[in-house]
Design brief:
This protein is α/β, with parallel strands linked by helices. The strands form two sheets. An eight-stranded mixed sheet has the order 5-4-3-2-1-10-11-12, with helices on both faces. It is globular, with a radius of gyration of 18 Å. The protein starts with a helix and ends with a helix.
Length: 259
């Protein structure tokens, strides 16, 4: 386990050969009860924007849709939205070529879920176009029922069900996640760091290990803690930050070192 000071010292050695990637919710933005109200921690966006002009690549990899993330993040920061199904690279938007045909299926499942989960007060259904999230943060007592519904809906409609913090996600069966996207975007970098907090970030952490084992890339798995941090995520950490405010402070230190 490294200290924050040790991590900063390693990330500032050679920015042009270093790539920085982060999740959004729980890392860049604090977790909130209403997902639509999530906003980046003060100072984080400005720091990412500045670092993008100095570091080899800076990107946000998130389960959020691109339409939500794009207005909140500067065009200098690449975005892998919906785990890579939607992307913004160099300011240009793109969609995974295999994803579009699943849009109608996801829309139909979202409508079905509204009826099927109506009896469970507090469960929120978030339709994201190419994926769907069933939130139980306001109704944790219904998690088992929501997970059972998600597993059944995934089986019937050919989707993948993934557990996340206080939620279950339904995705098209497209072979892309934070790990595959990070591997692609980190190409050529000699140092790569990823900041995450949730189960969906484990694929990115695994990709970092693969980069180290296969190419000798210097990699760092940074976990941003919160009250809901999964045990498996915490156990993956090379470095631990207390909360999104600590990440904002770390990024500002990288900015200061680069100036």
């Amino acid at each position: 386990m490294l200290t924050v000071d040790e991590l900063v010292a390693r990330l500032v050695r050679d920015p042009r050969r270093t790539a920085l990637f982060t999740d959004f919710d729980g890392t860049v933005a604090p977790i909130v009860t209403d997902p639509a109200a999530a906003r980046p921690e003060p100072g984080t966006v400005e720091a990412l924007d500045t670092l993008a002009s100095t570091y080899r690549r800076v990107g946000v990899l998130s389960g959020r849709p691109l339409d939500y993330l794009a207005p909140l993040l500067p065009g200098t920061v690449d975005i892998g939205a919906l785990y890579g199904l939607e992307q913004r690279v160099g300011g240009l938007r793109a969609e995974h070529p295999e994803a579009g045909r699943w849009r109608a299926v996801v829309t139909a499942v979202a409508a079905e879920a509204e009826g099927a989960l109506a009896p469970y007060d507090g469960v929120r259904i978030e339709a994201k176009g190419l994926s769907l999230t069933l939130h139980v943060r306001r109704a944790p007592q219904h998690l088992a029922a929501v997970m059972a519904y998600a597993a059944d809906a995934a089986r019937r409609h050919g989707l993948d069900a993934r557990e996340a913090k206080a939620s279950v996600e339904l995705h098209p069966p497209v072979a892309i996640d934070k790990g595959t996207l990070l591997t692609r975007w980190a190409s050529g970098a000699e140092v790569v760091a990823f900041f995450g907090d949730d189960l969906g970030d484990l694929a990115a952490f695994a990709a970092l290990r693969e980069l180290t084992d296969r190419l000798g890339t210097e990699t760092y798995r940074v976990v941003v803690l919160g009250p809901e941090t999964p045990v498996a995520v915490r156990a993956s950490a090379d470095v631990v930050l207390d909360d999104p405010a600590a990440l904002a402070a770390l990024l500002q230190r990288l900015v200061t070192a680069a100036s």
